[in-house]
Amino acid sequence: MIDQLDSLGEASLKQIQSAGSVDAIEQIRVSVLGKKGSLSQVLRGLAQVSAEERPKIGSVANQWKARLETAIEEQKATLEAGQLEARIKNEKIDVTAPGLLPHQGRLHPLTATTRKIVKALERLGFDTALGPEAETEILNFDAINISADHPARDMHDTFFVNPGVVLRTHTSPVQMRTMQSQPWPVRVLCAGAVYRCDHDATHSPMFHQIEGLWVDQKVSMSDLKGVLSYLLKELFGPDAEIRMRPSYFPFVEPGVEVDVRAKGLFKGDGWIEILGAGLVHPELFKFAGYDIKKAQGFAFGIGVERVAMLLHKISDIRHFYQSDSRFLSQF
Ligand code: DAH
Question: pTM (2 decimals)?
């Protein structure tokens, strides 16, 4: 039996020392020293051995067990050291390689343009106001001098929400909301989404406007021109010039369309229409309860998309709404 143990021990020792991986060693350990392993099987024969022989054989078996266990630990340590060595060799970190920048979010060009306009006008003392996007037909039209049979209503391709409620077609109703809620003097801006049933490369069914309203004791066209030429210089550069052309909007009298000309802005004769404006129509003051003999004011409405398209030379309005990061990351 001792011979049997010795030859099993020698053979197992060789196997252990030539094992190529920690997994392989573990398999050998189980197959030799495990409960059902070969060493345990040999020791099961111990019952048939005489009482004097038994301790001898037992001690040989224990010696083998200890030797094999030590060999297993040694070989494991060697293999693990080798693995570590290999990893250190293979896994190189190049500390001189350029780092990866975290993705940085930025403002949407419409948000940035809105803020630019609002910031510039806030310096002149304008407050900001908000109005609902689902607006009453009265405030969107009637209260600001666009009566039910007024042809201007057709220009506005309105979305109706309920009878009497529309998606506001412009920010102008906020003029009336403001005047109804506070006495003059008033200097207020309203930036927000507006809706019209219209869709092509330069029209979107939802777009953005900024409305301005200034009411005080003596407010004239020249004040309007001063404010707008300041604003357009802030937007398009100090050499920007403005020009006013007579036009018609029901809520102002006189009404003007304002053109701007600046270096590099536009080809042709250089003038490009940028916004509508005028002196507040007395009908609006009457509706709001302001004294039409004392209050004077001007109002203007500017399209945010139009300004952003001019500033960044964007040719299709639909780019603003497609959330394409290739487009948005340029700003
Ligand atoms: N509400 C007009 C529009 O949507 C723009 C506008 C024109 C606003 C003249 C004004 C204004 O306040 O005075 O087309």
Answer: 0.70
